[in-house]
Amino acid sequence: MSKEIPSTSRPASSPELIHSDTERIPGRRRFLGGAVMAGLAAAAAGGGAAIAVPAVAEPHLHVSGGLAVNVCDFGAIGNGRKDNTAAFQKALDHVHARGGGIAAVPAGRYLFKGHLVLPADTTLQGVFRAPPAFVRNSGTVLWPTEGRGKPDGHPFLTSQGNNVTIRGLGIYYPEQDVQAAAPAPYPWTIQHGAGDNLAVLDVALTNPYQGMHLVQAGRHYIARVYGQPLLMGIYVDQCYDIGRIENIHFWPFWANGNSLLWKWVSQHGTGIRIARSDWEYVFNTFVLGYNIGYHFAQSPHGACNGNFVGLGADASGRAAVVVENSQPPGLLITNGEFVGDQRADSQGVIIEPGNTGRVSFQNCAFWGPSNRIGTLRGKGPVGFMGCAFLGWDKNKRGEPAFLLDGAPATISQCQFYSWGPLREKPAVRITARCAAAVITGNTRIGKKFVVKRPPGLSPRRFQIAMNVATEE
User: Fold this and answer.
1) 78 with 109: CB under 8 angstroms?
2) What integer is the mean pLDDT of 151-156?
3) SS3 string of the chain?
4) If phi over 0 gives left and psi between -120 and 50 gives alpha, with beta otherwise, what is residue 20?
5) 156-189 burial, b if ≥16 CB within 10 A, otherwise e?
6) Pairwise CA distance, residues 399 & 396, whole Å
7) Which of 32, 280, 311, 435, CA to CA, is 20 to 30 A from 94?
8) Cα 208 to the center of its chain, rounded Å
9) Residue 350, strand partner residues
10) What is the per-residue pLDDT for 396?
11) Do the bridges between strand 221-227 and strand 199-205 make them parallel or antiparallel, or are there none, so unpaired?
């Protein structure tokens, strides 16, 4: 059991601490009368000791098994004018030196002219208890300004050690111009530096140029993050122990569809990019308005395998999903929803020539103004099982839903919808480069299930059978 910290164990000038199951320390006048600090203590307690909040100006606070401080006790001021870099860093270093804990940030606009390093076992925690959106001036919001024009400069927040958490706050770049034709480059907003178990929870990335850089971030846990990262939302590489990403919503919370910046993002931006990651788990994520929604990339360290459930990508410029490469166990994509945009060549999925791993789509839907549903190249097997494809060939050039141009492909038990005068447009086109194909048991909602193929295909490599149409 924790022992009470004697008052003589701290210099008189030290900021007040909250520690152990038993210690009660008054004096949080500046933290909204103590109510918010009590909430932070409760979150840290994890269901441990009770919180006593008398109806007086100086509440008594309990935190179970940890240590918490208010950043305002270290000189932070959330008025949007004072540079808070030194004050926040001092608070973070203070809790780290005492075994870890919470640097609690009350509501306010905290300007930063520098960057922060979050040491091991520290939590930077604001007032939000659910994923915030449209965060610029309200709640706990951090305003970084360092690194304009330097995308490779110091990240704003760097985790340096195990068990770092960023929670319950918004990050807004006040000097980014929403009326500009292109965004100003800035360094990464959150970057993993060392250690494992980085968590980012209930955070708004309102308008960063680059969102989260998770390299060598084993067992990262990214959940309930909303915002509009402009160039890149999340990047993962060299994750050798299972990372988790869930309940992400990247949407035009800042630059809307009528702005020049929206156009820039749709031409250059990527929602989520994952390179080498062993057993990545991604659940219930949505990205809108990016050139590429989900990019499974090849880095010098390798590619990805993992489980991807409930992926969503809307208004995807080049494609909702691009697979540069994947590991042999593959990408298991289930219950996805993927939508193109108005660009002439927009597609649902592109499997690039370098892919050697398995890619599997099950119970997914592809729709919107697409040129093709998919272009399948590479050597790795690609499968679509029980999926729905609604509309393609938006340019009326006779494009197929799928171009099989290398990858061995299986398309089975799927539904192909098409409307308009070209209701007999091909569902599949097979080129001479295609290694093998099984196209069976599909339904065309319309006239004829058309598969265009070169003559003389070997039945050992190609099976096309039992495909039907709803109209004669």
Assistant:
1) yes
2) 97
3) CCCCCCHHHCCCCCCCCEECCCCCCCCCCCCHHHHHHHHHHHHHHCCCCCCCCCCCCCCCCCCCCCEEEEHHHHCCCCEEEEECHHHHHHHHHHHHHCCCEEEECCCEEEEECCCEEEECCEEEECCCCCCCCCCCCCCEEEEECCCCCCCCCCCCEEEECCCCEEEEEEECCCCCCCCCCCCCCCCEEEEEEECCCCEEEEEEECCCCEEEEEECCCCCEEEEEEECCCCEEEEEECECCCCEEEEEEECCCCCCCCCHHHHHHHHHCEEEEECCEEEEEEEEEEEECCCEEEEECCECCECEEEEEEEEEEEEECCEEEEECCEEEEEEEEECCEEEECCCCCCEEEEECCCCCCCEEEECCEEECCCCEEEEECCCCCEEEECCEEECCCCCCCCCCCEEECCCCEEEECCEEECCCCCCCCCCEEECCCCCCEEEECCEEEEECCCEECCCCCCCCCEEEECCEEEEC
4) left
5) bbbbbbbbbbbbbbbbbbeebeeeeeebbbbbbb
6) 7
7) 32
8) 13
9) 322, 375
10) 85
11) parallel
Is 227 within 8 Å of 205 (Cβ atoms)?
yes
Tokens of 182: 């292109």
CA dihedral sign of residues 460, 466, 470, 472: positive
Contact call for residues 106 and 77 (beta carbons, < 8 A) = no
Per residue in 341-355, pLDDT (tens digit) is 878 889 999 999 999
Stated pTM of the model: 0.86
Q: Distance between CA atoms of 267 and 229, rounded to whole angstroms?
A: 14
| Least confident piece of the model among 128-137, 214-223, 272-281 | 128-137
Q: Which residue has the tokens 């039992």?
A: 466
Q: Please provide the size of the chain in residues.
A: 472
Interacting residues of 205 by C-beta distance below 8 A, sequence separation 6+: 171, 189, 190, 211, 212, 225, 226, 227, 228, 229, 233
Q: Are strands 210-215 and 165-171 parallel, antiparallel or unpaired?
A: unpaired
Q: Give me the residue label for tokens 């398995």.
A: 358
The sign of the torsion formed by the CA atoms of 288, 292, 298, 299 equals negative
Residue 191, phi then psi, degrees to nearest 5: -135, 135
Distance CA 135, CA 318 (A): 29
Amino acid letter for position 442: N
Average pLDDT of the chain to the nearest whole number: 86
φ/ψ (deg, to 5) at 58: -120, 85
* Rounded-to-integer distance, Cα 66 and Cα 71, Å: 16
CA angle 108, 141, 289 (to 5 degrees): 150
